[in-house]
Design goal:
By secondary structure, the chain is of the alpha/beta class. Helices cover 35% and strands 22% of the residues. It has a single domain, classed as Rossmann fold. Strands 3-2-1-4-5-7-6 form a 7-stranded mixed beta sheet, with helices on both faces.
Length: 203
């Protein structure tokens, strides 16, 4: 049964990548090795996951001890959102573009302790990346951190954007047991008030 699910997930990813390669950055789901790495520090209360796809990171978070009820999954791809609703029915699933988090979301009633992102930030325009990051940290409680993976050789968020948003990035590890090989960065606040001032209070 597991091998059937893996085959089905890979096929779904490949089809989605063919239809929209800028939205789906990889032709295959992330590996369990990358899932373990990106969720290693993220099991802290409510967790926001962006671009969960078929739920590889989601399952790893649950294995880390995060309750399914404490997961907020943001997935704009309807084909993936349907899979997530079937596999993680107790989670909160938002079928929206992650940039809309900056508008404030009533579905996220309590502060987020950590966020995990599988979004292809490198393929997005800077304005959209700013909106996504601002939305994440708008809902994040003090001390909360974002974990973002990338296939590139450096942090996928350019230093000028980090400076503009009052954020800092640190590489926490990498894995070659993924296709392509990937690295994970921890993104955290430098100045807690900077993002709130840019986008105003949550509504």
């Amino acid at each position: 049964m597991t091998s059937i699910c893996i085959y089905s997930d890979s096929l779904n990813f490949f089809r989605s990548w063919l239809s929209d390669p800028l939205r789906v950055a990889s032709v295959t789901p992330s590996s369990r090795s990358l899932a373990r790495l990106i969720t290693r520090e993220a099991a802290d209360g409510r967790v926001l996951e962006l671009g969960p796809g078929t739920g590889v990171f989601t399952r790893a978070l649950i294995e880390r001890g995060v309750r399914e009820e404490d997961l907020v999954l943001v997935e704009c791809g309807t084909e993936f959102a349907a899979v997530l609703k079937e596999r993680f029915p107790a989670s909160t699933i938002l079928s929206i573009d992650a940039a809309r988090l900056a508008e404030g979301r009533p579905e996220i009633s309590a502060g987020i302790g950590a966020a995990v992102s599988g979004l292809p930030l490198l393929s997005m325009p800077p304005r959209k990346v700013i909106a996504i990051l601002a939305g994440i940290f708008l809902h994040m409680r003090p001390g909360g951190q974002l974990y973002q993976f990338t296939y590139g050789p450096r942090c996928p968020i350019p230093r000028p954007l980090l400076d503009r948003l009052g954020l800092r990035a640190k590489r926490v590890g990498g894995t070659i047991r993924n296709f392509p090989p990937a690295s994970v960065y921890r993104i955290s606040r430098r100045q807690p008030s900077s993002l709130a001032g840019m986008f105003g209070p949550r509504g």
